[in-house]
Amino acid sequence: MEPQEPARRPAFPPPYPPPPERSAELRRRFAEEARSQWPDLSALCLMIGAEADGTLDEAGMDAAQIELDELAGRLPYRPGEPLAWARAVGRLLGGTHGFCGTAGEYERLESSLLHSVLRRRRGLPILLSVVWMEVARRAGAPVYGVALPGHFVVGFGTAGDRVLADPFEGGRVLSGADTELLVAGATGAPLEPSMLVPAAPLQVIQRILNNIRAWATARPERSDVALWAVELAMLLPSRPARLRYDRARILVQRGAFTEGAAELEAYAELVSVVDPTAEEKARAQAHAARALLN
Predict the structure, then answer these.
(1) Region for residue 238 given its phi and psi (left: phi exceeds 0; alpha: psi -120 to 50; beta: otherwise)
(2) Where are the domains of the chain?
(3) What's the pLDDT tens digit per position in 58-85?
(4) How wide is the angle at C-alpha 85 spanned by C-alphas 84 and 90, nearest 5°?
């Protein structure tokens, strides 16, 4: 009897990506949803999760949506003014169910994946805010996301009667001074009214993907994560041309020199009229990438 080879350990800890066929289907649906008239925030978040985690199948995605529905069903019926909504959602999610954040969440990819946040009750501010928004919205609350610099929170009500809450701190209701301190701590600048404008679903998705890319960029060995994150971002409407440059750089980093060079040349063509300096730089990088093939 011949000795068996020891099982190979994965190069990285989970989650592991889905097979190519599943990934292609997810990306088709992601692009379709992103271009719909009313993009579904939770559905887009779950497709990001499925792109990151091959164990998240259709049943798992449906289960996550059902959990959001069930949580919404546990809220009191129309509790009243914006402050009452904020407190009711905070008591349910931050209190009863223990959703909150910790400093360690910034070190975990799972903190940016909705299905994992629902399971672990932990996540980044923006993913916890997605949970708050999706649960409150299902219950009829006037709720929206607020993309403060460096820290995402949720708002209840309208501009004239607004209440902000911080899901990362279990749903703590923020005073005006609290909000000013959050912004000053992140930017050193004062709070501007424009920072309180409700964030559209696709703006939330773009920020989530940016967070994932930032996580991967700090870990060069996880260029695979950076690549799918930028490729999903490229499926969003009104995407910046810079994403093509970012994708090209990742491809070259991963050793796909020919494909990366072609993408750099395509980017150079796009910016040739508006930014000749960027065009020249991209063409030089494309030439250098092709030289690596020799």
Answers:
(1) left
(2) 20-221, 240-293
(3) 999 999 999 999 999 999 888 889 999 9
(4) 100
